[in-house]
Amino acid sequence: MRKKKLSERDEQMLLLLKKFDFLTRDQLNRYFNLGSIRNTNRVLYELSDYLISIRDGYQSIYYLSKHGREYVGCEKIRKKGGHVQHVIMRNEFWLFYGCPVDWKNEIKVSDGETQIVVDAMFSKYNLYHFLEVDNMQTMKENKSKIHRYIELLKNDLLVQKLFHFPKIIWLTTTELRRKQLIELSKDLPSVKVFTFDEIR
């Protein structure tokens, strides 16, 4: 491997991939203001020792290689698979919502009786938001998760802990699924459903 001193921006790019697992070329371009596609490709090519890229349709998706993980002290090994688009959708919402600084992925939430793994958790205007990404799962799985949210609401322990019930945000793929999620969530106090196309 050729030795290369990385710039601060290059290091920040690797650290961002450490936190967010997979990012598309366009997501990296927007976050780091890299300008033209040609310049973005050049920047990413110069980091090719530290990155692995995969193609998904028309987009290139990047994640840390062994050298990249070693550089930023990352023990988690990413592998391509069916979960990648789920992660890309989640990260797109992070960008869309202005990159909340307290954003945390895959958070286990429990009131001692009911437990949920939230795709992402963040706050805005001092209110907690839980993001759920609906990509490949069945509506039956979504219904089960919404039921657990309703249980958390009824138990009231989460409200006591956070001082309010979080706003639930769904990111889904189609208008039909948006309507289904809104209907399933009607017993929750604050729910917003976006489609992936409208936030890109």
Structural write-up:
The chain has 200 residues and is of the alpha/beta class. It contains nine helices and eight strands. The strands form two sheets. Strands 4-5-6-7-8 form a five-stranded mixed β-sheet, with helices on both faces. Strands 1-3-2 form a three-stranded antiparallel β-sheet. The model has no long low-confidence stretch (mean pLDDT 94).
Main attributes of the structure:
200 residues, 44% helix, alpha/beta, three-stranded antiparallel β-sheet
Concise account of the structure shown:
The chain is α/β, with parallel strands linked by helices. 44% of the residues lie in helices and 24% in strands.
Biggest sheet strand line-up: 4-5-6-7-8
Count of helices? 9
The fraction of residues in strands falls at 15-25%
Number of strands: 8
Tell me the radius of gyration: 19 Å
- What summary fits the major beta sheet? 5 strands, mixed
Q: Which structural class do you get from the secondary structure elements?
A: alpha/beta
Q: Terminal Cα separation, in Å?
A: 36 Å
SSE sequence, one letter per element: HEHHEEHHEEEHHEHEH
SSE topology sketch:
Elements: H1 8-20, E1 23-24, H2 25-32, H3 37-46, E2 51-56, E3 59-64, H4 66-72, H5 84-96, E4 104-110, E5 115-124, E6 127-133, H6 139-155, H7 157-162, E7 167-172, H8 175-184, E8 191-195, H9 196-199
Parallel strand pairs: 6-7, 7-8
Antiparallel strand pairs: 1-3, 2-3, 4-5, 5-6
